[in-house]
Design a protein that fits this description.
Helix content is about 75%, strand content about 0%. With about 220 residues, the protein is an all-alpha fold. The longest helix has 26 residues. The chain has a domain of about 50 residues.
Amino acid sequence: MKFYNFIIKYRLQLSLLLVVLGVVLNVTGTGFWPTFPLYFVSVIGIFTHYFIGPLRLIQKPMEEGKVEEVEKILNTIKFPNLLYKPIRSTYYTIKGNMAMMKQDFDTAEKHLKKSSELGAPMPEAEGANKLQLGMMAMQKGDFKQAESYVRAAIRAGIPDKESEAVAYLSMCQIFMNKREFRAAKDFFRKAKACKPKTQQVVEQIKDLEKYISRVPG
């Protein structure tokens, strides 16, 4: 695995080295066909460097919470538009998540919108992406846009019950703001049915339950 990661990390440099070696061998009289495998391997290396990128290297540092290392790997991608479409979508999703961690919501929104436009590799990832955009729209007070994003997230499918509860609570708040109390209560019931365990979400449900029980509808 370490050797494979080494190849991914340095494949562009290794590919260029093979090109130089092939040229040197040609010049010294070895001929083209004996050096053809060097050129062939170098072309594959250069192509995969730009088409697939180094996202395979991100998994371990992300699991270990090494944010700076993740950013360092992402910064090696100089031409993201050359990445294969599903990989490019993942790239922008990760960039958006990193920006959110820094509370740079404008940059996060820009990257997440790019990922959404490209389409996520899996419907669940698309749902999570849309939900994040919806939460940012709510923070900006744009409830109309927030509703559109959160509805799209629910349609696409959300990967876990905690996030699903957050989506329904967001819809509840949106409809409370619209004074459509019946719909708000319906979304609140759906949020509770998810049985979230995250303390922040549980407390939000408790606080909202005290208020929503007194509204009509």
